[in-house]
Amino acid sequence: MLALTCGGCGAEKEPVTITIWNYYNGEQLEAFNRMVQNFNDTVGKEQGITVESASQGSVNDLETNVLNAAEGKVGAEELPNIFSGYADTAYALDQQGMVVDLNDYLTESEKSEYIEGYLTEGDFDGDGSIKIFPTAKATEVLYLNDTDWQAFSQATGTTYDDLATVEGLTAAAEKYYNWTDAQTAAPDDGKALLGRDVMANYILAGAKELGATGCDVENGKMTLHFDKDVVRKLWDNYYVPFIKGYLSASGRFRSDEIKTGDLLAYVGSCSSASFFPKQVQTDSGDSHDIMMRVLPCPYFEGTKPVSVQQGAGMVVTQGTDEQIKASVEFLKWFTQPENNISFAVGSGYLPVTRAANSMDAMEESGLTMTDDMKSILSNAIDAVNNNELYTMRAFAGAKDARHALEYCMSDRAAADRRTVEERIAAGQSAADAEAEFLTDENFEKWYDETLASLKTFEG
Fold it and tell me: Which residues, at least 6 apart from 451, have a Cβ–Cβ distance to it below 8 Å?
């Protein structure tokens, strides 16, 4: 009897606990934790798997903590079984042999269920490997303070259709600046219409639309394609209107400028939906409720729209066979259509499977969606299904290269605009204050400096 009892014990599946680090906050974190608890109470309980989730704060905090753990730095926690990872962080750990290739853990049928571009993002060597498991993705949309837009629209005849292209948006921003400027006695004090959350996306996706690849990556090495004519088009529709006060960027996120009334619109991730303010509170004491409207991300005239593919996937780190299998079990469960849709509706992220990536599937799920969330997800899904998707591939130094792209134009624009504002405050006209920054020579100098800086990242 003792032998039989021990034999039965040996046949039981040993319980396993896996840890997940993420960067979710607010409503997104609440939605993710609900999913984790649901798994633990159902499939996890049946299979002896317990998932423990921990938010590390911001994306940068998460990346720092993961890299510190991987390097075994003093005071660092043990590397988790799974972490939310972008390609550059996953690539860095993969070079150290710490990332699991999940290709063999998925059948061909299972792989076919996912949107192809999401799976190939983690194929660093072009051999079909899956080093990043897609769980929730995002793309960019145009957010608009529709309440205050209405007064401007009615006064100037500017319509939503004018915001469909980058050039149309630039022209609308000029109109808005002039319209707000005319409402005060002081000269040259108009307001900016637009801001952008992620400048690297504007440069990379915009360049792609205009016929330049920007950064080609093969076998972990990057080749730069920084076409001057293309870059000039990007410059003319960001730097130039920024210098003139039509565009703005202050603080960490543009939604903060919506709240203070300093912006009317911004281009940002569909996953930032929960951060759009419900009210404007200006420095002058004005406070009023606002409604949000969501429109497609503008594209360059005469081009095929290119939408950025963003949003971290999940990276599984090396561990025991039981830990890896348990990690994959959770990720497969999380991306089942009904579960992935539940997370999408609660967070603004997009599902990653073909079956779930439609508004019909979301509405048929029976989950309650606000009108705002329906609009956000509808625009984002249309972009993913109908536009070319773009994401920068991983390579050595990719994080630093993207950082350079993020700030090469925006920092220069912000610094030069401050100089313009100081000159206007000192009594110069806007035209005189801006003149030196709007020359071909200024662009050429910036272009040469930026090109030389970006070339240092080539393989």
Answer: 224, 226
For 318-334, the three-class secondary structure string (H helix, E strand, C coil) is CCCHHHHHHHHHHHHHH
Q: Rounded to an integer, what distance in angstroms lies between the CA atom of residue 287 and that of residue 314?
A: 41
Mean pLDDT (the chain) is 94
Residue type, 222: M
- CA nearest to 135, candidates 382, 358, 376, 347: 347
SS3 of 136, please? coil
- Structure tokens that stand for 404 in this block: 């350079």
First CA to last CA distance, the chain? 67
DSSP run (H or E) holding 265: strand 265-269
Tokens representing 440 are: 């071909």
Tokens 């915001």, residue located: 163
3-state secondary structure 15-27: CEEEEEEECCCHH
221 three-state secondary structure:
strand
| Ranges 121-125, 198-202, 290-294: which has the least confidence | 121-125
pLDDT tens sequence across 281-327: 988 888 999 999 999 999 999 999 999 999 999 999 999 999 999 99
